[in-house]
Amino acid sequence: MSKLILSILGLFLGIQTISSQHTINGIKSSVKFEISNFGFNTVEGTFTGMKGSVSFDSKAPSNGSFDVCIEANTVNTDNQKRDEHLRSEDFFYVEKFPVICFRSKKIAKKPEGYLVSGTLTMRGISHEVEIPFGFTEGVFKGALTLDRTDYKVGDDGSIIVGEEVTLEIVCAVN
Question: Which residues of 73-85 are buried (b: 16+ CB within 10 A; e: fewer)?
Answer without folding.
Answer: ebbbbeeeebbee
